[in-house]
């Protein structure tokens, strides 16, 4: 499946329904690098902008035992909570 206009529209609709997003460190860093404003003018097609705005505004929780801090509307989940997050 390619990341086309329909996929981004669908993802935007799903994100609109979420209370928050849960990321591990690697995914958080990847998504932040790709979607945190400001993007270079012309860096992505116009049809990606609704997704970019939605993911930028979303509350995020980042599970990590190695990060010291996060921003981009995110809260760091550390310590025992982070260590147990993937063991459910």
Write the layout of secondary structure elements.
Layout: H1 5-17, E1 21-24, H2 25-35, H3 49-57, E2 60-63, E3 74-77, H4 79-84
Parallel strand pairs: 1-2, 2-3
How would you describe the overall organization of this protein?
By secondary structure, this protein is of the alpha/beta class. It has one domain. 44% of the residues lie in helices and 14% in strands. It contains four helices and three strands, in the order αβααββα. A three-stranded parallel β-sheet has the order 1-2-3. α1 packs parallel to α3. The longest helix has 13 residues. It is globular and about 40 Å long. The model has no long low-confidence stretch (mean pLDDT 87).
Short description:
This protein is an alpha/beta fold. It has helices at residues 5-17, 25-35, 49-57, 79-84, and strands at 21-24, 60-63, 74-77.
List keywords for this structure.
88 residues, single chain
């Amino acid at each position: 499946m390619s990341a086309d206009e329909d996929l981004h529209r669908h993802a935007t609709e799903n994100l609109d329904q979420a209370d928050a997003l849960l990321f591990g460190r690697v995914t958080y860093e990847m998504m932040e690098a790709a979607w945190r404003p400001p993007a270079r003018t012309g860096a992505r097609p116009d049809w990606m902008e609704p997704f970019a705005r939605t993911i930028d505004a979303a509350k995020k929780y980042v599970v990590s035992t190695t990060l010291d801090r996060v921003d981009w509307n995110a809260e760091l989940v550390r310590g025992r909570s982070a260590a147990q997050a993937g063991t459910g």
